[in-house]
Amino acid sequence: xxxxxxxxxxxxxxxxxxxxxxxxxxxxxxxxxxxxxxxxxxxxxxxxxxxxxxxxxxxxxxxxxxxxxxxxxxxxxxxxxxxxxxxxx
Length: 89
Hints:
YefM-like_sf, three-stranded mixed beta sheet, Antitoxin, Antitoxin_Phd/YefM, single chain, about 90 residues, alpha+beta
């Protein structure tokens, strides 16, 4: 993922214009906060969950092999050691 440029703002700007700055963060912008000209922190947007259309999900998994669910279950059942303490399997 490409790193976005961070705009520098002073601690005073953050304090005085926090509402405006937070709107910018919500829209995806990042900031480096400075104190006396020295960077002291970053303000970055959190990644939000986004809706992925069904067609994109299907396209992403299209190259995956088809799973035979009955064979898969049989393979799992044959490879798992049975618990000697369980009443039934």
